[in-house]
Amino acid sequence: MDNQSSHDSMMVPMASEENRSPESTTTTTTTTTTRTAAAVPGAREPAVPGEEPGQAATRAWTVRLLVVAIVLAALNLRPAITSLGALLEEVRDGLGMSGSVAGLLTSVPPLCFAVFGVTAPRLARRFGPGAVVCAGMAAIAAGLLIRPYAGSTPAFLAASALALMGIAVSNVLMPVIVKRWFPDRVGSMTGVYSMALAFGTSVAAAATVPVTDALGGNWQSGLAVWAALAAAAVLPWLGFVRDRGAPGAEQSPAPQDGTGGERPALRITRSRTAWALAVFFGLQATAAYITMGWMAQIFRDAGVPAGTAGLLLAVTMVMGVPLAFVIPRLATRLPSQGPIVLALGVCGLAGYAGLYFAPAGGALAWALLLGVSNCAFPLALTMVGMRARTGAGVAQLSAFAQSTGYLISIPGPLLVGVLYQHSGGWGLPIALMTALMIPQMLVGVLAGRDRTVEEEAAR
């Protein structure tokens, strides 16, 4: 989000705590508890005063539908990237793409995430977050369907940008939707979302080549097939196109300064926590893109067979499936997330040390350690939801942290490639990865402190 204007932030369905009377606080809390309980299988819904039984049943099904919609959306947030990586050589040959352009493709996703993600809060404020995510899923489906048959490199890049635009706005709004609908279950719902995202990432990487072979070896069909998954994700979001907030929740009044006038808008750039979280997000994204882009090549250069190197990369990515559910739940139970940041960082340092000293000898161990380290992503998403007090604050923080973070991550994979090419080995690139992990741990500890961006920006 444009951090110079809070008018891009989205209205939230609940009043800020300092503006609510005890009665309104009680009512909103009861409503929140009711709707989140419906998401727990077998849970009994508390009664809401004045609510008809039919309304309670409708609300319960609405929450269940939203959970399905979130999972399907998360499944579609990475296949556009990992499916292309699996068939990059075939795409280059088919389009006559130069090596330099193919190399730039590794930096296109974070660039699009930064450029388009900043528009998400403004769009959500105008049309509602459900409508924006629904449109995002449609954009992903259209982009994935068009790009294999584009016929030229510029058209291929344009269609890819369309899909990445849909991913970018959905990336930013997922924490916002979780915060608004599940304010007392941020950790568990972020875990569900992150686990689905990791699963979609690994499945697309592992299945694209076999699916292409099953479709006659045609790379266009192998890429286009993922449009069907995105199209399926559009359907549940259609039910939330007109939704402007969680059911039963209050619309936020204009914030007051205590004298009857409107309080100055939240200026996210005044918050040290927001900056720490943005840098943490950027450094963990750098590590993730370097791992996805280069780890298999490190193993192959060490003498590991190509097929085994691919499986080791899949192991690293699959580690995010169970841990993406565990880590956010653990994070919300701690007053500070610094210890988790440090534990993940130590795993990353150990993995890099292994790649340097014995890349082939302990390849599985290094793949597992780096898989654990890459789970800084769901932790960062969880902290976005915890470091802001209101839904509007989450919208601003999510857009700022992700847009700034993805900009930070753009040079990393390219720099690793340059160092590898000029040094002729992996010593310098691994040293760079190790050096970047140190500040990632430091800013992660700062971002994990128990405070909110609203408090810091108001000082």
Secondary-structure topology with pairs:
Elements: H1 22-37, H2 53-75, H3 79-86, H4 88-95, H5 99-104, H6 108-117, H7 120-127, H8 129-146, H9 153-181, H10 186-214, H11 219-224, H12 226-237, H13 272-301, H14 306-318, H15 320-332, H16 338-357, H17 363-373, H18 376-386, H19 391-409, H20 411-423, H21 427-447, H22 453-458
Helix pairs in contact: 2-10, 2-12, 3-10, 6-9, 6-19, 7-8, 8-9, 8-12, 9-10, 9-18, 9-19, 10-14, 10-15, 10-18, 13-14, 13-18, 13-19, 13-20, 13-21, 14-17, 15-18, 16-17, 16-21, 18-19, 20-21
Count of individual helical segments:
22
Fraction of residues in H or I helices: over 70%
Query: Which whole number gives the mean pLDDT?
Result: 81
User: C-alpha Rg, in Å?
Assistant: 22 Å
Order of helices and strands: HHHHHHHHHHHHHHHHHHHHHH
The SS-based structural class is mainly alpha
According to DSSP, the number of beta strands is 0
| Outline | globular
Distance between the termini: 21 Å
Point out poorly predicted stretches: 1-49, 246-264
Strand fraction equals under 5%
User: What profile does the largest beta sheet have?
Assistant: none
